[in-house]
Specification:
Keywords: Membrane, Transmembrane, Transmembrane helix
Transmembrane segments: 87-109
Largest sheet: none
Distance between the termini: 10 Å
Radius of gyration: 15 Å
Protein name: Metal-dependent hydrolase
Structural class: mainly alpha
Number of strands: 0
């Protein structure tokens, strides 16, 4: 799923969660938005492990607007490292957030976990039904 779609989904989720926790509305919206969109930073680490270099990170900084609007123009079709790596790395991050949320009483960690989980489900939906 493209970054703009993730940003919109994360913002809507943040607004819905913020309504449920109005005393922390701004914080909840911010955390949901940031965690739901910035989780894709793990693609750079995955790309480093798979390809042995930082070409995705370099491409992003050399053409930042393209990386936000059209991810394939940055990573290229032939250099895609596949959905399994991406889904696996997102799942690892989600599990870390879930464990942290379980052992802490910090609502914003739980918000980050929910937003990350929705991001993961969005990616799975796009991989299964849209590609």
């Amino acid at each position: 799923m493209n970054p703009r779609s993730h940003a919109v989904i994360s913002l809507v989720l943040g607004l819905l969660l913020g309504v449920l926790k109005q005393e922390l509305f701004v914080e909840v919206v911010f955390v949901a938005f940031v965690s739901g969109t910035l989780i894709d930073v793990d693609h750079f680490v995955v790309g480093r492990f798979v390809h042995g270099d930082w070409r995705f990170l370099k491409s992003t900084f050399s053409s930042f607007w393209a990386s936000v609007t059209d991810v394939q123009s940055v990573v290229g079709e032939e250099e895609e490292f596949g959905p399994l790596y991406r889904i696996f790395s997102h799942s690892v991050i989600l599990m870390i957030l879930m464990i942290a949320g379980f052992y802490s009483d910090i609502l914003l960690i739980e918000v980050a976990a929910v937003s990350t989980g929705v991001h993961l489900l969005s990616d799975l939906y796009a991989d299964v039904f849209l590609w």
